[in-house]
């Protein structure tokens, strides 16, 4: 990659020219450098021949890369087409390194890389996916990325569709650090907190500390889901877990004492009114307004996202609530006044109780 054998020739020539500048007594340069000239030049020539000899290996490496990128063996037609592309680029006087780059670029713009498609079997009946397609589905589900070599090996030998092998691979992959992607792309997206670490909608006047803690809020959700998957906790722990994962910044935000500032598992959260996803600072903060809480947002989120209920769209002309609770009214009184309209009451009687139950936390989840 460095092509040092070639750059050494240029470096030596500079040293040689510099050594001749000391005067007429050294017209041919420093004699101590002379014995180095021939080995350096010979080494450069040998390296040039080596570069030419390994060009076919580079092409094969690009084909191997394409196999990994397309997540299946290449057909003979695809191999022939990619090799022909390389030779056509060389025939257009494109240097070998640039031709290899174009070959890799071709792999990365191919539909087989960009799309996770399944090839249907002949006939009109449903049929199982093949092992290569199963490997892709499993890997992108658990890791949000392509299969690793072990998973590809199972697909290659046709054993992945065996239920016991599939279960074994699934358990192995869940224990891998890459399962963090599942926690982020599935867990955080499901809770609608995938972008909380960049949320810039809170009033800095009301909540000046939010920006410094929002990243830790999202990280708590990620670590909680990683633990849920890897330790195979009950799905009920999403709501009634007595533990979470905090660092010093988030623990201080919650008003909880921890041992040091590093990320750590903290148990006994139900005793301080938290536990599970309903006590996450991430979910409580995201489902709040810029300067106040919002029982409506929290109740609607709990109904539709957590419980899976489909609520009707709000009718047109519903007045927006003020950014700050009017003087003389509590948050609950403001919502009850807003929800008293007969048109709105049917939905609000379903979502407001959930939101009111979370009013013990402010707009950035402090209790």
Question: What's the quick description here?
Answer:
By secondary structure, this protein is mostly helical.
Descriptive account of the structure:
The chain has 367 residues and is mainly α. Helices cover 55% and strands 2% of the residues. The model has no long low-confidence stretch (mean pLDDT 90). It contains 17 helices and two strands. The chain is elongated. The protein has a two-stranded antiparallel ribbon with strand order 1-2. Helix 3 packs parallel to helix 5.
Produce the secondary structure layout.
Blueprint: H1 4-19, H2 34-53, H3 55-70, H4 76-91, H5 96-108, H6 111-114, H7 131-142, H8 149-156, H9 163-175, H10 180-190, H11 210-230, H12 237-240, E1 243-246, H13 248-254, E2 264-267, H14 281-286, H15 295-306, H16 331-338, H17 342-357
Antiparallel strand pairs: 1-2
């Amino acid at each position: 990659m460095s092509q040092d054998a070639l750059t050494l020739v240029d470096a030596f020539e500079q040293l040689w020219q510099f050594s001749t500048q000391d005067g007429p007594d050294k017209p041919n340069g420093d004699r101590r450098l002379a014995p180095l000239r021939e080995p350096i030049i010979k080494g450069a020539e040998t390296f040039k021949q080596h570069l030419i000899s390994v060009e076919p290996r580079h092409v094969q490496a690009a084909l191997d890369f394409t196999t990994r990128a397309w997540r299946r063996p290449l057909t003979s037609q695809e191999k022939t087409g990619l090799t022909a592309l390389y030779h056509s680029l060389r025939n257009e006087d494109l240097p070998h390194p640039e031709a290899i780059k174009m070959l890799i670029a071709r792999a990365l713009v191919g539909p087989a890389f960009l799309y996770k498609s399944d090839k249907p079997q002949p006939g009109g009946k449903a049929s199982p996916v093949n092992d290569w397609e199963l490997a892709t589905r499993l890997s992108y589900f658990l890791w949000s990325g392509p299969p690793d070599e072990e998973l590809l090996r199972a697909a290659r030998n046709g054993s992945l569709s065996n239920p016991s092998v599939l279960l074994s691979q699934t358990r192995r992959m869940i224990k891998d650090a890459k399962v963090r992607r599942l926690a982020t792309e599935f867990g955080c997206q499901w809770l609608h907190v995938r972008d909380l670490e960049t949320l810039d909608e809170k009033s800095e006047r009301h909540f000046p500390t939010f920006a410094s803690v929002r990243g830790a809020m999202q990280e708590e959700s990620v670590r909680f889901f990683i633990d849920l998957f890897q330790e195979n906790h009950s799905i009920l722990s999403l709501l009634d877990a007595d533990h979470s994962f905090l660092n010093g910044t988030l623990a201080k935000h919650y008003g909880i004492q921890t041992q040091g500032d590093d990320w750590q598992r903290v148990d006994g959260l139900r005793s301080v009114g938290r536990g599970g996803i309903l006590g996450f600072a991430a979910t409580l903060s995201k489902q709040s307004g810029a300067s106040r809480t919002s029982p409506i947002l929290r109740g609607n989120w709990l109904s539709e996202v957590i419980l899976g209920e489909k609520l009707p769209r709000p009718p047109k002309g519903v007045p927006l609530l003020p950014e700050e609770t009017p003087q003389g009214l509590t948050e609950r009184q403001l919502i009850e006044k807003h929800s008293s309209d007969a048109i709105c009451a049917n939905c609000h009687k379903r979502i407001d109780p959930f939101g009111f139950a979370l009013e013990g936390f402010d707009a950035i989840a402090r209790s």
